[in-house]
């Protein structure tokens, strides 16, 4: 073996070992880094506006962007998450404590008229459903230090992505072995996919969940924040959506004897929640890349299992990248035919 090949193999081995070690060093921080990059892409138009006010001070513009995003998005979502966590734990413990008697007597009487042998095992049902919710939410609140550190790294990363995003993109193009044209296509399609899925489907689902929670609060359904979070995930299920939460809530009010409230919640569900998708979809969902809502749902559930609560964004983001690459591959194949 000549000296040149030996040097090449040594360099490749050293580079590979360094990359592996770097990955394991940065692995605990990958979630906040990817999440910060995603937020930087989503809020890019807003950041351009801020940059126009501070043309000579890009750091000040990026700082203003971080503060505005934190106040408008992160703080409400954090408070919402804490409330969901508390309501889930409260409901979990109450169902396990009172068992079958957790169902109001008036509701049980109405149901047993239709199903005489109605006797649900609430302890088993609550353990299967609510325990999953508590465990996934508990992963982000279990360690105060790690949560605070991740949040701090997210804010710092978001600042640099907002300020130096174009420089990072240029550096990635230099490192990539692909032609610059292919790199441009990948970044462009990824940008389109992020806006289609994250700013489109997920944002609409969150808005539908929020409106569902408002309706449940107005008409007196217990634990409205918990069910609002459930409705946000259910909104991703094709042809089912928030009805998975609203219909049982309407039934609960009806069997409780609150006929007027049940009718009011049904009207709210149709007008405020059901029609929101028709109004917002044309404005929020980019037509470049469309992913089936059921696949988005699977990516959300898989992301939650793999990454914890931040998987609500990271799961669909990974699937979006896959579809962006597949779209580029199909476009190239057709061009070569």
Give me the secondary-structure topology.
Blueprint: H1 3-26, H2 30-42, H3 44-53, H4 58-98, H5 105-114, H6 122-141, H7 144-175, H8 180-218, H9 224-234, H10 243-255, H11 259-274, H12 276-284, H13 293-307, H14 311-336
What does this entry look like structurally?
By secondary structure, this protein is an all-alpha fold. It has 2 domains: 58-163; 178-337. Helix content is 83%, strand content 0%. The chain has 14 helices and no strands. The longest helix is centred in the first third of the chain and has 41 residues, at 58-98. The chain is elongated. The two termini are 43 Å apart. The model is unreliable at 98-102 (pLDDT under 50). This is AI-2E family transporter. Keywords: Membrane, Transmembrane, Transmembrane helix.
Spatial gap, N to C terminus: 43 Å
Radius of gyration: 24 Å
The count of helical stretches stands at 14
Low-confidence stretches: 98-102
Largest sheet: none
**Total strand count, please?**
0
Mean pLDDT: 76
Structural class: mainly alpha
Order of helices and strands: HHHHHHHHHHHHHH
What does the overall shape look like?
Answer: elongated
DSSP strand content: under 5%
| Fraction in helix | over 70%
Number of domains: 2
Keywords: Membrane, Transmembrane, Transmembrane helix
Membrane topology: Multi-pass membrane protein
Main location: membrane
Family: Belongs to the autoinducer-2 exporter (AI-2E) (TC 2.A.86) family.
